[in-house]
């Protein structure tokens, strides 16, 4: 499935990537609004966050576009899900409202990202480019800010001052704006980012793909962890504008050399590519590889539109039940089967 994999998202969400996409640090951003919103940082805004994850109940006088509540309904545990085509049919006739929300600095950051991605299904061509262009920042600056944030998260350092977090959230919105434009067939912005990432990753190729180098634990290397994340990101970026050959080439270098959390979301995205290109048994095999590396998020598999062609296949249904800890030979009851209590991966950057 073509995804971010939040982004963060865990950068899960790769971060997730993939890995999953965790909710970004909840501080407001400074992108210019499409029209004057509530004052940035206004604690009376229904979507303002102060180091929290839940909005307050809107008051009758609050000016909250209805599209916000439609986007809220698409969240997963308050966080960003993965993305797939047709996900935002409920908001596809609300383009102007989506643009307003995407640029409104008083809105919950997670909702702004959802609005960016939903805008791609509500408009295309020049109107979409004009709406999202103000959210783009220089890709080299994106890289530098992402590295600093990843290093802080890796070492579990304290949160920086608010102005630093605001710039990090600028990066989030810029990345998702690139995704949305690429999904619309306008890949120029995401190709700019790919070129920057390749400059940093390719010189480290041998170390990145060396299975003997650990990314976590006592002997873990932050640099290798970060470059493996970027390697996944490059593949995922190609996936956004359906350059499946390039995406698969990058993903397969991960799955061919690494395992565990360094490879499971690459397997998952390869499954999405295979399903979308008419290779269902290859897709199931890649899902099995993802499971063997720790992916157990059946809830997301059931929702992911990129895997729609696999529904009902005996091999897929058997694998699905196996992920749930059920007898793979028994008939499947579909999404109603009981979910395991602690899936290994949230939606993050799969697909």
Question: What do you see in this structure?
Answer:
- With 351 residues, this protein is mainly α.
- It has one domain (66-336).
- It has 14 helices and no strands.
- The chain has helices at 66-72, 95-103, 109-122, 125-132, 139-154, 162-183, 188-201, 205-208, 222-240, 244-257, 264-276, 280-292, 298-303, 314-323.
- Mean pLDDT is 81; it is low at 1-54 and 338-348.
Short note summarizing the structure:
This protein is mainly α and 351 residues long. Helix content is 48%, strand content 0%.
What key phrases describe this protein's structure?
single chain; disordered N terminus; globular; mainly alpha; 351 residues
Secondary structure layout plus pairing:
Elements: H1 66-72, H2 95-103, H3 109-122, H4 125-132, H5 139-154, H6 162-183, H7 188-201, H8 205-208, H9 222-240, H10 244-257, H11 264-276, H12 280-292, H13 298-303, H14 314-323
Helix pairs in contact: 2-3, 3-6, 5-6, 5-7, 7-9, 9-10, 10-11, 11-12, 12-14
The outline comes out as globular
Overall pLDDT score: 81
Mind telling me the C-alpha Rg? 19 Å
| Total discrete domains | 1
Q: Give start-end ranges of low-pLDDT stretches.
A: 1-54, 338-348
Number of strands: 0
Largest sheet: none
What is the first-to-last residue Cα distance?
2 Å
The helix count comes to: 14
Instruction: Provide the helix percentage.
Output: 40-55%
Instruction: List SSEs in N-to-C order.
Output: HHHHHHHHHHHHHH
Specify the structural class. Answer: mainly alpha
How much β-strand is present in the residues? under 5%
